[in-house]
Amino acid sequence: MKCIPLLKTAAAAACVAFALNAGAQTTTGSGSTGASETMGQHVSDATITTKVKAELLGAKNVKSQHIHVKTRKGIVSLTGTVPTAEDRDNADQIVQNVSGVASVKNHLKVQPAQ
Predict the structure, then answer these.
(1) Which of 51, 65, 102, 104 is the most buried (most CB within 10 A)?
(2) CB under 8 Å to 36, separation ≥6 — which residues?
């Protein structure tokens, strides 16, 4: 069972590395302001998604293995399944406290473990 915390740590590190890489790529961009605004929004959303995933993975009060996260214009959508309504509510609360999140659309379904 020591493998699960190690996998969660590795996943969080990979998410952070992805966000840093995405941020580095946008600082070297050039060209029209329209394209850079769109790219900037995309990077911001990617950064928010990464932060949300890392927070959910690190949370002790949420079983987040089956939660999928998407962000668009600061609005985070949660989909997937959790074993209890408490996990669903805790996930919502965690996401609301992440910097940059404008709102949360919580579409998590409760599916008790079998």
Answers:
(1) 51
(2) 26, 29
Tell me the three state secondary structure of residue 99: coil
> Which has more pLDDT, 55 or 9?
55
Dist CA 13 CA 64 (whole Å)? 16
Predicted local confidence at residue 25, as pLDDT: 44
Domain layout of the chain by residue ranges: 3-110
DSSP of 37-58 = HHHHHHHHHHHHHHHHHHHHHH
Token pair of 70 as six digits = 């998407």
Strand partners for 91 = none
In a 3-state reduction of DSSP, which class is residue 17? Answer: helix
